[in-house]
Amino acid sequence: MEHLLTLEQLSKEEILDILNLADQLKFQKKNGIPHPILKGKTLGMIFQKSSTRTRVSFEVGMHELGGQALFLSSRDLQIGRGEPIQDTARVLSRYLDGIMIRTFAQKEVEDLAKYGSIPVINALTDYCHPCQVLADLMTIREFKGGFEGLKATFIGDGNNMANSIIVGCLRLGMKVSIASPKGYEVCKHIEDFANKEYPNMFEKTNDPFIAAKNADVIFTDVYASMGQENEANERLKAFKGFQVNKELMQIANEGCMVQHCLPAHREEEITNEVFEEHAAEIFEEAENRLHAQKAVLVKLMGPKE
Ligand code: CP
Ligand code: NVA
Questions:
Q1: N or C terminus: fewer CB in 10 A for the chain?
Q2: 132 lines ligand 1 (CB under 6 A)
Q3: Does ligand 1 lie within 6 Å of residue 262's CB atom?
């Protein structure tokens, strides 16, 4: 593994490898066992969008691994004044050992990897959010003990989270069903990927109750993602009925988990009641960002096996 740009680029074995290392790093942290695997290494973190979890977990993660992280806001970087990504990539490659980027276009992340000479980590684009879904998969395994035979359901926008959830859950042997309103369905590229690589494992519907039937894990995410703030009112209307609530949970399997990448908009995509009932799983998921990302950092920037 050279970069983490999308989950499609990882095999089932590579994902499991990351999750196993993440479990080990979580154990080491909980037991006070130092693990300065990235001593002397520096990660640059480019943010073109806001963040709470991603920023803090990467920064703390690098610190715990013995290295350091630099927060680079695009407002302060010359990228914000038009310096091309190709040049930024070649310059930063001469100072840093790895780059994490959160931005709009997936192409920017791909270009950073193409023109730079150090590992690049996608920390969310409009297309996908692989770091989040690695943490989600880690959490599912913690709570459910494995993946095979489980059904994952996504309720809501066919957005970056939906894309990575579909790919990650299918890769690890889960069935996936997604329910979105008309006009907000998952992109054709992901639908084709799912149907071609995992025939009979993927379902797309406009009915949340079809998707949630017999689910073992239900995911949801905000109606309006970062960059779509001006569509918020329109989306609020379009997504009516696409809510993770008590009625929906009742048709899922007993013991069904709820996962939300956060931030959550209570009483929009999820009721406060369901959120609080599943808070233990949701905040474990948030914590696991730290452990899963540390595993990714070690795989990409650590000593080669
Ligand atoms: N889930 C997630 O990526 O959170 P932040 O936007 O706070 O980083
Ligand atoms: N879909 C959301 C995820 C936030 C972590 C967004 O892109 O804003």
A1: C
A2: yes
A3: yes
